[in-house]
Amino acid sequence: MFSELCDKINTCGSENQMCQQSRGHLLLGGTKLGEHKSHKFVHYCLPGLKELIKIGPTNCTYGKHFKRSTERAYFAVNSTLLDVPNNERSLDCSYTYGETYVYLSCSDICRNTPCPLKPIKHDTCNNHVDKRVFSITEDNTLTVIYRQGEHYHDRIFSCDNKNCVLYQDVCNLVDDCGDGSDERNCSNHFKCSKHNEYIPHSAKCDGFVHCRDFSDECNSDCPIARRLILSHISINICSWVSGGVAILLNIHVIFKTASQISKSTSYQGRMNKILITLVAVGDFLMGCYLVAIASFSYNFGDEYCKQKYKWLSSMTCAGLGMLNCIATQLSMFSMTFLSVFRMMWVGQMIPSDASSKKSRIKIASVIVTIISCSVLIAVLPVTPRFDDFFVNGLFYPENPLFTASVSKKTHNAVIEAHYGRFHKESVLSWRSVTSLVEHMFTRQYGGADTEKREFFADDLTARDIRD
Q1: Are strands 39-42 and 80-85 parallel, antiparallel or unpaired?
Q2: Could you tell me the sign of the dihedral formed by the alpha carbons of 308, 313, 316, 319, in that order?
Q3: Of 432, 457, 433, nearest to 310 (Cα)?
Q4: Quick check: 124 and 103 in contact, CB under 8 A?
Q5: Cα-flanking dihedrals φ and ψ of residue 410, to 5°?
Q6: Closest by alpha carbon to 318, among 380, 373, 366, 251?
């Protein structure tokens, strides 16, 4: 099913490989258990590594019998010996997973870490009917043991939905049971608000989006600067004030200077006032931009974090970027021409007549050049023909394969993982990327609708575009 894509259970070809590339599913690290016959051991407790104990946090106990917190079953091989640290509650097991987490937490070795195991009911393991055998426990309760190879054992976890999984599938950041019960009593993860997704604690508030619902980055524990358009209320206030002042003052300058243009009889005087007017227009547009950004930041509030990529890929955001660019270029070009003309006019004793045809053509040429160049620079980055030069990434709403904004490099890695015949050295256009991604999905499951993150939709605080 489409909704189960990237659930860390490899049910669709190269699914996990693609999700590793697209969403950065983290490889599980931390303390690992080794195994030799009936022994399970923490690696720094190996006899050959005893010298490490001198610089380690604790000494080790060898051959400690592991006993489930629930009653053990008869006829099962359940004598597991552990070589583990001997100080109770001495380890931080926040970064241990699977059977490592189970053995250590259920041996009272971990700090503030509950044992996830519970009694194995007789009606469990419906997903492994061919491997389950009924037995009785030490208190004469009917239970189930699991056949693995030539032996039977009780090293299984009983799911709430009557399925069962092995210890290696418990507290491993994957919903192996299908109902989340194998991850419910674990203290080694952050659970996303939706979709039964689990990530390591280290992935929470790390600047990258791992949860499809953005809950790992959009919660009260994360820096507020990442949750707002403008990172601080003081910046918002400054934008309101400076933008409002720029609008009011430049409106006054525009009308005052514009009314004097027709009164100027000299070419130099008229050109000077026109350029000053254009500078004021540019500053006026910048004021409008600041007020608009402050308004959107206020309206979004904390909700911006969850709407961030929809906003950054919207035409409204692109339009504001174009407005900012036009305002900046208009002021810059006007001031540049003004400086050049003033330098040319130095020492010119007799002013030219502003009403002559030649003067009017010069004035019109300068106005058209400044305005057209300003608009052209702002429009080119959002023109589809130049997407390969200016598009920052693609956003896929409600698509579990991708979260946040996805760069071309990440797309190339996903395409290679899916098709298997793609060369890393190949440089694909955004058009080719979109076509190849669309062919990964069928319309039956919603297809692969995309929204472009334009050149202007840049975020200096974002680490979410994977490169």
Answers
A1: parallel
A2: positive
A3: 457
A4: no
A5: -65, -40
A6: 380
Other Cβ atoms less than 10 A from the Cβ of 114: the count is 12
Rounded CA separation 334/345 (Å): 16
Copy the structure tokens of residue 323: 């407005």
Residue 456 and residue 448 in contact, taking contact as beta carbons nearer than 8 Å: no
Q: Which two tokens stand for residue 109?
A: 């070795």
Rounded to a whole number, what is the largest CA-CA distance in the chain? 116
What average pLDDT does this structure show over 97-103?
Answer: 86
Enter the pTM of the model.
Answer: 0.77
The neighbour count for residue 89, using CB atoms within 10 Å, is: 13
Looking up tokens 């009785």 gives: 136
pLDDT > 50? residue 54: no
Which among 193, 348, 352 is positioned nearest to 268, based on CA atoms?
352
% residues pLDDT > 90 (the chain): 22
Question: ∠ CA(437), CA(442), CA(445), 5° rounding?
Answer: 110
| pLDDT tens-digit readout, 389-423 | 888 888 888 788 888 888 888 888 888 888 877 66
- Across all residues in the chain, what is the average pLDDT? 80
The structure tokens listed for 237 are 């206030």
Strands 190-191 vs 142-148: parallel, antiparallel or unpaired: unpaired
* CA nearest neighbour of 395 among 325, 466, 333: 466
Q: What pLDDT score does 51 carry?
A: 47
In contact, 187 and 112? CB cutoff 8 Å: yes
Q: Which residues pair with 198 in a beta bridge?
A: 191
Write out the DSSP string of 297-325. HHHHGGGHHHHHHHHHTSHHHHHHHHHHH
Please check whether residue 202 is in contact with residue 193, taking contact to mean a CB–CB distance below 8 angstroms: no
Q: Across the strands, what pairs with 81?
A: 39, 65
